[in-house]
Design a protein that fits this description.
Length: 295
């Protein structure tokens, strides 16, 4: 079998350990930049995967993030930020990481070969669900087994891998191939491959939020404002969208119990909180459409 691209030697590998650290730092930085650039070619497929994820949220289904090792850490981070950033409900998000989410500094490598635990964690997969499966090699047993289970259940599969023609991509409805260059440290996919995966995961979830109407002029209008920073952000968003002063924005947010979309509608049009919620239900949560109806 040909060696996977993620296991190949980098062009600058020979003598790397004999070079000044500052030179090696430059090689590492350029490796990260080169890896990031490959994501552009996958943008259309990423958009397709994001639309599928939005359909799952609308249908009341569950997004299942599945991965092992460093890919699992990045997938988990993306899933865990969706509640605070876009108010995706926790019951619609699930993380399946080989060996479970680590609670300390140790992350055993053998867990990526263990598939037994998937039998219990994926038993309730439905056709409404989408799994986001991530594996640099595209052949990680844990991630592959999850994708095969999803295929049998009729769930949608969004897959991210860094090797073309890999088994994981072959199983996917939305195969996102990030053909990153060989790692500066051969096989250390937490570096270049991981950087590309991180970008793709961020794009998937953000594009999903755009499709769901949770982004307005580049602002997160479905943010869950549960700390000082986010409450200030919510106030600023309402000020900008409704073109009102801070006091009016604060009043609208109080009327809307902290929710940005109805608060912006209240501040911009003077409707009641109940009416704002009614209008947003009619527009399926799309603030722009709601504002267009009432201006």
């Amino acid at each position: 079998m040909p060696r996977p691209r993620t296991e190949a030697l980098h062009d600058m590998a020979e003598g790397l350990d004999m070079r000044p650290l500052a030179d090696v730092a430059g090689v590492l930085a350029r490796g990260q930049i080169s890896a990031a650039e490959v994501v552009l070619a996958a943008a259309p497929t990423i958009a397709g995967g994001a639309a599928a994820m939005a359909n799952t949220i609308r249908a009341g289904g569950v997004l299942h993030y599945v991965a092992a090792g460093s890919s699992g850490l990045m997938a988990a981070a993306d899933a865990q930020e969706l509640g605070g950033t876009f108010s995706i409900q926790p019951e619609q998000l699930r993380i399946h990481m080989a060996g479970g989410l680590p609670t300390g500094v140790e992350m055993p490598g053998d867990t990526e070969d263990a598939t037994d635990s998937l039998q219990d964690s994926l038993t309730d997969l439905s056709t409404r669900d989408t799994i986001i499966a991530v594996s640099a090699s595209g052949s990680t047993p844990y991630t592959l087994a999850a994708a095969q289970t999803a295929r049998s259940a009729g769930a949608t599969i969004v897959a991210i891998a860094n090797n073309t023609g890999s088994a994981l991509l072959e199983l996917a409805d939305h195969p996102i191939c990030l053909a990153t260059p060989p790692e500066v440290i051969s096989g250390s996919t937490r570096m270049g491959a991981g950087t590309a995966q991180k970008i793709a995961l961020n794009m998937l979830s953000t594009l999903m939020a755009v499709e769901l109407g949770h982004v307005h002029d580049g602002m997160m209008v479905n943010v869950h404002a549960d700390n000082i920073k986010l409450r200030a952000r919510a106030r600023s968003i309402v000020c900008r969208i409704a073109n009102v002063e801070q006091t009016a924005a604060e009043t609208a947010l109080e009327m809307a119990q902290g929710e940005v979309k109805p608060a912006a509608l209240i501040a911009a049009t003077g409707v009641s909180a109940d009416k704002a919620h009614e209008i947003l239900r009619e527009t399926e949560g799309n603030l722009r459409a709601a504002l267009a109806q009432n201006t």
